[in-house]
């Protein structure tokens, strides 16, 4: 048996009253891709933040190359060849992509020309293309994720950890990334992939570990386990839907709920909007009826951000017409910039939206007791792992932050809900719950626009599907309602106008 390149044993870490890790173990071997799965709050990100030198463990032992080490900082981790691609972006928004890639690079290799050459070489091998001279703040979430991956690969680490790297990548990009991970492992590196989707881990991993409640509950080779066993280890329940699992094509609902189909709730006609680091919108037409889920599938950066913002009433069209209802819920894909205020607690973050709802304001004063009750109901109903509603958003895991946003905006949806990658960062059980809630809203007569880079999610949930490419929308015909058919339209390979 190959000895581990890095080993973590009995790792414990507490955040106040929350025990994030309680004796977690992990061994990463050279030449292998190791998948790490777990529900939200299971401790995955905390464990790898310990390995990356961002957190000091309260107890436990870390070995690199068979020798005990203390990783007191990210610099210590890099000195041992450990590279970490974070789930939450660590880029400087006002700097260009190239400048972000150069940050922290020492010596001649830090010269812009040398960094550009190295970046282009990695881009050529991975296909994860990004605009090197564009400011990061102008990029979509998918492009920023690609920058994070490129930044880690430029340091040529011996041990590479990627925390949810495929959350905003297209299937083709994810497949290219998996090929790269196999190549990196084939060169003798230890590669760890943190993921929520079982099929991704089974596709690319040689071995896998499942964390639950801060403890390692399953470690085995890919051949020794099954999807059902992994799900039971993660959440103790294998009754979840196919889109949450990522199990491929499923026949989604067809047509519109009959009792609602005559009423158009939201409509855009000939809408044009300049791009914000992407394609913008180029004469878009879309209508959504009460009781239907309209799925919008596309490669990140093709106008999804602008479409979501216009439908949510947050961005006015430069031309064309937008007819929208007054009560709109909006689940933004970018929870850190548009969804939550990190330094606010759960109640305050709920108040950001609920202050407009009846019953939560008395004159010019907010009714904090009512808001706290609403926040507690969201925490309970959506299983937000937080000690109380006074917990700061910054102390929650990414998945639990998303649970707060989803719970808040589902309650805000009166006539229309705009959901932009609503299950990004959620575990299997939470994603399944969100899917059920979207379907419940539609059955209650709410119009839902589901904008997602997850094709399985779109195919499973949508009554109608539209593909967005280069700022144009085109409805997907029944004959093309497959991963391959929708995928080709997402890439704009069909020459008919949308």
Describe the protein in words.
With 498 residues, the chain is of the alpha/beta class. It folds into two domains: 6-238, P-loop containing nucleotide triphosphate hydrolases (Rossmann fold, 3-Layer(aba) Sandwich), CATH 3.40.50; 258-490, Rossmann fold, CATH 3.40.50.300. The chain contains 17 helices and 21 strands. It has a six-stranded mixed sheet, with helices on both faces. It is globular, with a radius of gyration of 23 Å. The chain starts with 5 loop residues before the first strand and ends in an 8-residue tail after the last helix. Mean pLDDT is 85; it is low at 246-250 and 256-260.
Write the layout of secondary structure elements.
Blueprint: E1 6-15, E2 18-28, E3 32-38, H1 44-51, E4 59-64, E5 67-68, H2 74-79, E6 82-85, H3 97-102, H4 112-126, H5 141-153, E7 159-163, H6 171-186, E8 190-194, H7 198-204, E9 207-212, E10 215-221, H8 227-235, H9 242-245, E11 264-273, E12 281-289, E13 293-297, H10 304-311, E14 319-323, E15 328-331, H11 335-339, H12 346-354, E16 361-362, E17 365-366, H13 368-381, H14 398-412, E18 416-420, H15 428-443, E19 447-452, H16 455-461, E20 464-469, E21 472-475, H17 483-490
Parallel strand pairs: 3-8, 3-9, 6-7, 7-8, 13-19, 13-20, 15-18, 18-19
Antiparallel strand pairs: 1-2, 1-4, 4-5, 9-10, 11-12, 11-14, 16-17, 20-21
Helix pairs in contact: 12-13, 12-14, 13-14
């Amino acid at each position: 048996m190959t000895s581990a390149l890095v080993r973590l044993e009995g790792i414990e870490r507490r955040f106040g009253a929350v025990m994030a890790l309680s004796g977690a173990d992990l061994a990463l071997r050279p030449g292998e891709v190791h998948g790490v799965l777990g529900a939200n709050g299971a401790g995955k990100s905390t464990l790898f933040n310990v390995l990356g030198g961002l957190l000091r463990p309260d107890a436990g032992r870390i070995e690199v190359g068979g020798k005990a080490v203390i990783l007191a900082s990210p610099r210590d981790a890099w000195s041992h060849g450990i590279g970490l691609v974070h789930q939450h972006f660590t880029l400087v928004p006002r700097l260009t992509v190239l400048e972000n890639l150069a940050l922290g690079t020492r010596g001649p290799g830090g010269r812009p020309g040398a960094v550009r050459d190295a970046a282009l070489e990695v881009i050529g091998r991975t296909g994860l293309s990004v605009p090197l001279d564009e400011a990061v703040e102008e990029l979509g979430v998918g492009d920023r994720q690609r920058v994070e991956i490129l930044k880690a690969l430029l340091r040529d680490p011996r041990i590479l950890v990627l925390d949810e790297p495929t959350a905003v990548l297209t299937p083709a990009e994810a497949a290219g990334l998996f090929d790269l991970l196999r190549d990196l492992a084939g060169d003798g590196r230890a590669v760890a992939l943190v993921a929520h989707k079982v099929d991704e881990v089974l596709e690319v991993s040689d071995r896998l570990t499942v964390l639950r409640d801060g403890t390692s509950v399953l470690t085995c080779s890919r051949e020794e386990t099954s999807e059902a066993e992994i799900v039971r280890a993660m959440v103790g329940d294998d009754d979840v839907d196919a889109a949450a699992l990522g199990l491929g094509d499923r026949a989604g609902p067809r047509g519109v709920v009959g009792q609602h189909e005559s009423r158009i709730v939201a409509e855009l006609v000939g809408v044009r909007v300049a791009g914000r680091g992407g394609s913008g919108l180029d004469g878009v037409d879309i209508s959504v009826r009460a009781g239907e889920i309209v799925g919008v599938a596309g490669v990140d950066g093709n106008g999804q951000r602008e479409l979501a913002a216009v439908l949510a009433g947050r961005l006015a069209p430069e031309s064309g017409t937008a007819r929208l209802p007054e009560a709109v819920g909006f689940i933004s894909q970018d929870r850190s910039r548009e969804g939550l205020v990190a330094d606010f607690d759960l109640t305050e973050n709920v108040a950001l939206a609920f202050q407009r709802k009846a019953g939560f304001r008395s004159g010019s004063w907010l009714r904090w007791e009512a808001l706290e009750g609403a926040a507690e109901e969201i925490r309970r109903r959506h299983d937000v792992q937080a000690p109380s509603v006074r917990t700061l958003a910054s102390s929650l895991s990414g998945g639990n932050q998303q649970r707060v946003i989803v719970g808040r905006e589902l309650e805000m949806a009166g006539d229309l809900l705009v959901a932009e990658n609503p299950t990004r960062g959620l575990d299997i059980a939470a994603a399944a719950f969100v899917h059920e809630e979207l379907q419940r809203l539609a059955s209650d007569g709410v119009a839902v626009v589901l904008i997602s880079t997850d094709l399985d999610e779109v195919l499973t949930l949508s009554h109608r599907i539209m593909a967005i490419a280069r700022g144009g929308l085109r409805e997907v015909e029944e004959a093309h309602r497959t991963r391959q058919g929708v995928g080709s339209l997402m890439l704009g390979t069909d020459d008919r106008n949308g």
